[in-house]
Amino acid sequence: MLRRLLDKLEFTKGLGFRLGGLLSVAILPIGLISVIQTLHLSREYERSSEIALLGRTATAAAGERALLQSALGTADALGPAVLETMDRPQACSDIMRGLVQRTVNFVYAGFTRLDGVTECSSVRGVHDLSGETSFQQFSESPGTLVTTSYDGPVTGKPVVVVIQPLYRGVELLGFIAVSMSHDLLRSTHVSGLGTDDARILTFNNQGEVISSDREGNGDIAQVLPRGKSLPSLLSRSETTFRDISNSGERRVFSVVPVVPGLVYALGSWNRSESGITGIDITRRTALILPLILWAASLAVAYFAVYRLVLRHIRELRGQMRRFAIGDRSAPPPVLADAPAEIEDMSQTFHNMARILIRDEEAMEAAVNEKTVLLKEVHHRVKNNLQLIASIINMQIRVIDHDDAKRVLRSVQDRVASLATIYRNLYQAEHLDSVQADRLIRDIINQMTNASVGPGAGLRIDTRLEPLELMPDQAVPLSLLATEAFTNALKYSGVSDPDVEPWVRVSLRMDGPRHAVLEVENSIGGSSLAEGTGLGSQLIEAFATQLEGEAELETGDGRFLLRLRFRVENLHKRDGAEMPQVVLTSAARPGSRH
């Protein structure tokens, strides 16, 4: 994040950025005037388009409005006749049948009591409507209602039902229902609107779809606004709005009342049909002219600055970066075709690079020579120590006294450990560090081969994690490991003859700055007190040198020595990882060196 911020700050200081900013300020008034005028015209055009959409929606639902208002008026007109013939169901039914036969708009007319029973209707017989949705809606909220039924309770056909409550004074007696077929309402929609580009449907105040411009309502949900119910659109009556449809298409919607408070019409239009596409194009073109003027000015200015200054500066910057990341094959060439000031700068850098290349070659040769000499010293020290160990081994062979042999063997192990350290030093790629895990593993293998013969029945486990140490720490750590492993081999045993003795050595990190060495062995019935002597004193001395403290634990048939010490100058190297070079001007994406 900090690097990105620095890159942005550096970019804003560039000559090209500053020149572009000045030109932008110069053409800003002209661009603002053009944008304001075009946006004003687009708003007027948008308002006209909204009014046109509301008019088209109202026009599409005009026939349905007339039918619904006629049905409401008919239901009101039937009220006095029903009140007069309520006690004579046959006479009341004759009135209803006569109405249906004389009028092609209606397929059913009837009066339903509050108990849901209909004795007065255009269909012969007594009908129980108490289980119908329309009756339940009226019972919950008595009042004028327009609803739909895809399986008419009396006619068995898809119908739209208009319900008017019937009162005698203030007493509610029931309701008068007049039904019209769905096909009749659909036929009243204006021809040509029922396409994918424009869809019209009507719904009541409870969100129930009354009719649509197509047969079947399977695809109605696809053109409705996503995440919005139909009742929530009542607050947007006589308005237009833009939203995403359930099909994922961006559409324009318009809502107009068909029968205020009861039925509403919803228009769903795609952008091209609604005229919004033209508005968007007009708004986008409002920015074209000032953008063209701005781009042309920047292009001319940038071309001039680039030819004279920027390309030479970038070439010089590329030379500096290549030189900084290690390209020392030859001094960078002088920019001969650049302006005098930049050519002088390039000549100065050329001279500086030539001097640095010469000095670095001399320093590299000196470092290589010193490295070879230091490795040779480590090699000779290792050879001398191995020679001393061999002499001690020869002396051991000619001595018959067991205690003297044991003492000389201990000395030989210590000398061999030192020889192993120096062997690792001159074989290491980096002379400033030692692989402690590899060093301790070599010492253990060497002592095991020398002290544990075949068939001894001693099991040795090692768990050594990778750890790099400075030579000043590696030497006392390896010597301490030698003494501890020697004691573990010497005193390893078991109480049960059926179980083989064992020795475990582990090395691991304990946090970011500490490491732990553990040497553990099984013990039998012999006392460990006999083992305290020079080895214990050496272990304590080496632990002090490592600024750690050796802890001893005995129990459960085992003896454990644990040393926790601080790791100084700890670092891990990966052979495939290259050193990171931080430049004063970090390379940006797309830049070339």
Automatic annotation (TrEMBL):
SUPFAM superfamilies: ATPase domain of HSP90 chaperone/DNA topoisomerase II/histidine kinase. Keywords: ATP-binding, Kinase, Membrane, Nucleotide-binding, Phosphoprotein, Transferase, Transmembrane, Transmembrane helix. GO terms for molecular function: kinase activity. It comes from the Bacteria. The chain crosses the membrane at residues 20-39, 287-310. Pfam families: HisKA_2. Gene3D superfamilies: Histidine kinase-like ATPase, C-terminal domain (3.30.565.10), PAS domain (3.30.450.20). It is found in: Membrane. It catalyses: ATP + protein L-histidine = ADP + protein N-phospho-L-histidine. It is an enzyme of class 2 (transferase). Residues 307-361 form the HAMP domain. InterPro entries: HAMP_dom, HATPase_C_sf, Sig_transdc_His_kin_sub2_dim/P. Its EC number is 2.7.13.3. PANTHER family: ETHYLENE RESPONSE SENSOR PROTEIN (PTHR41523:SF8), TWO-COMPONENT SYSTEM SENSOR PROTEIN (PTHR41523). This is histidine kinase. It comes from Paracoccus methylovorus. The lineage of its organism: Bacteria, Pseudomonadati, Pseudomonadota, Alphaproteobacteria, Rhodobacterales.
